[in-house]
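Protein folds are increasingly written down as discrete tokens. With that in mind, we are printing a sequence and the tokens encoding its fold.
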Amino acid sequence: MSEFLRSEIVQKEMYDMQILYKRLSTIVEHLKTLDKEEKIEFIEQTKILIEKQKVFYTRMTLAAKTDEELKEIVNNMNRLSKLFCGEPMMDVLNNMTDKLNSYIPT
């Protein structure tokens, strides 16, 4: 396993993202029943998750410059992102945030 991925800090970050993702995925099942404030909170929490993913991806990309295993992972992520979304991973994450912002009621 990549030295980057073995790091305690990285392990904690991945765990925190997983916990937040699981919490959000249980809420999404009941999204239609949420009131306005709850929907806004759901959007804000989702944006927090995306920001964590962006930071994590950026750190991975930087670490991949000296870690061949991680470089392969980052390259695969980008390849799949372009294949399924038509754009690089960071663009996908940025577009997700923009889309969520457009859903926030005023």
Notes: The chain has a mean pLDDT of 95.
